[in-house]
Amino acid sequence: MSTPIPDPAQRWRCGGCGNLTRFDVRRTRRTTEFWHFDLAGGHAVEETEVEAETVESVTCRWCGRDDAVEVVARADVGADVAADVAAGVDAEHPGRPGTAAAQP
To answer: Of 45, 50, 78, 89, which residue is 20 to 30 A from 30 by alpha carbon distance?
Structure first.
């Protein structure tokens, strides 16, 4: 069974040791990318569209368990952030242009 990816109002927690910050994540992604090549042959990926993503496993870096990692609510997330998430505002980058927090 795969572990879900937390949304901005959630986080992972290891039920075995209490770790909240260090996890090894094995995932598979299907993407479409726009690669821009310069005349010398070097390239930069300028756009990436994630078409599908599957988290295969999440393992606690502290105790090594992969059977105890769970998604829990973030304690520091208040009603304002939950409202932003519902409205589609990027809570991880609140100052990013185009989000409500970046508006004057």
So the answer is: 89
Domain-located, residue 26: yes
Structural domain boundaries, residue 42: 10-93
- How far apart CA 97 and CA 50 sit, in angstroms, is 21
Where do we find the tokens 């004057």?
Answer: 104
**Residue 44 resides in a domain:** yes
Could you tell me the pTM of the whole model? 0.60
pLDDT digits (tens, 9 = 90+) for 15-63: 999 999 999 999 999 999 999 999 999 999 999 999 999 999 999 999 9
| Alpha carbon separation from 15 to 1, 36, 37, 104 (Å, rounded) | 16, 44, 46, 42
Task: Report which of 47, 8, 13, 14 is spatially closest to residue 31, judged by C-alpha positions.
Answer: 47
For residue 90, what are its two tokens? 């990027």
